[in-house]
Specification:
The longest helix is centred in the last third of the chain and has 30 residues. The chain is mostly helical. The protein is globular. It has 8 helices and no strands.
Length: 200
């Protein structure tokens, strides 16, 4: 796939901005989800996994510098999500809505494992996110910190990644893909017709 360098230069900051805006809304509303991988997944699909990983790393670095430093280690989760998003895209899972949701759930489950390991071994189970409330409640109920962190992370991370994958899917359905550098591949992998509608 031949890529237009100016398009790549534009998409990476756009993906970071998309991650930032969604994360800011979540932070403002104190929601127990994240939504800071939308631009990451979009760039992984449109540009390729390396660019998705770069978007994730840069997003979490900026969030770590501006919001709170605990975001930085979780860039590993974003990088893993970028790889999974590209994998499911290449396997044709974006042709059906239910497959997109299933891909998001799988990515969420794997992301929960990675985030649990980071949270427990880097931050002692409490990283300053709204999920810490659930973790604390489970610990108070007698759970070990690693199981409490995982149980608290699993449902929220799955919901988060399902929403993330679905939002990207809808963006690609609406966006005029003919302007993308890999338009043919996106049409094929999303089951797009000569227009822009995806098969559901």
């Amino acid at each position: 796939m031949r890529k237009n360098s100016s398009f790549i230069v534009a998409m990476i900051p756009a993906g970071i901005a998309l991650n930032w805006v969604a994360n800011s809304i979540v932070e403002m509303l104190k929601l127990p989800i994240f939504l800071n991988n939308i631009g990451t997944v979009l760039n992984a699909v449109v540009l390729g996994p390396i660019y998705g990983i770069v978007t994730a790393l840069m997003t979490n670095t900026i969030l770590g510098l501006v919001v709170r430093w605990t975001y930085v280690p979780f860039a590993l989760v974003g990088a893993a999500v970028a790889l999974m998003a590209y994998f499911f895209f290449k396997k044709g899972w974006y042709k059906k809505t239910w497959k997109v949701l299933a891909a998001g759930a799988i990515a969420g489950a794997i992301g929960a494992v990675i985030s649990t390991i980071i949270s427990v071994y880097v931050f002692g189970g409490f990283s300053g996110h709204a999920n810490d409330i659930f973790t604390a409640g489970l610990v108070a109920a007698g759970q070990q910190i690693i199981s409490a962190t995982f149980i608290a992370n699993l449902p929220t991370t799955i919901v988060d990644k399902v929403l993330t994958f679905w939002i990207v899917y809808m963006i690609l359905k609406i966006f005029p893909v003919r302007f993308l550098p890999n338009a043919r591949d996106i049409r094929e992998k999303l089951g797009l017709s000569s227009g822009n509608g995806a098969a559901l």
